[in-house]
Specification:
Elements (H helix, E strand, L loop, with lengths): L17 H8 L5 E4 L6 E6 L2 E7 L6 E5 L2 H10 L3 E3 L8 E5 L6 H17 L3 H7 L6
Antiparallel strand pairs: 1-2, 2-3, 3-4, 4-6, 5-6
Length: 136
């Protein structure tokens, strides 16, 4: 049975709404949400580096995530709902249509991977500050 969230969007297993995506993205150390492009595009950052963005008015919701190039190609070949990143470096970014066709656990894993890839590219002192138990 479908339940409605505060925004009126359907929130059922396998389907995503912005509150659920926001909660996941903000669960990582040192993350914040900003709207640098427009009020309709939510962008999630870690240490001033983008790791996820979502067009809030897309139905179904979409999210663009950083991805290792070989993995990005595999995912695009495997899932029709995963395409090259819209308006992003297509080698390193995928856009996922969150319509329930991509397994929920895979979406969660891809958000984690995106965050981890961005953190790996940060200076050592920033990575140490973000490490569990560092107080960040």
């Amino acid at each position: 049975m479908d339940s409605k969230d505060d925004k009126g969007g359907v929130d059922v297993i396998g389907l995503w709404n912005i509150e659920r995506l926001r909660s996941l993205c903000l669960s990582f150390p040192g993350t914040d949400e900003r709207f640098p492009f427009s009020p309709e595009v939510s962008v999630f950052f870690v240490a001033d580096k983008m790791f996820a963005l979502s067009a809030l008015d897309d139905q179904p919701l979409t999210v663009s995530l950083k991805c290792a190039p070989e993995h990005a190609l595999y995912l695009r070949d495997t899932y029709p709902a995963i395409t090259a990143g819209y308006h992003l470096n297509k080698r390193h970014w995928n856009t996922i249509v969150l319509d329930g066709s991509v397994p929920e656990d895979l979406v969660v894993d891809l958000v984690h991977e995106s965050y981890d890839l961005v953190v790996a590219g940060l200076p050592k002192y920033v990575r140490e500050r973000l490490a569990p138990g560092s107080g960040e």
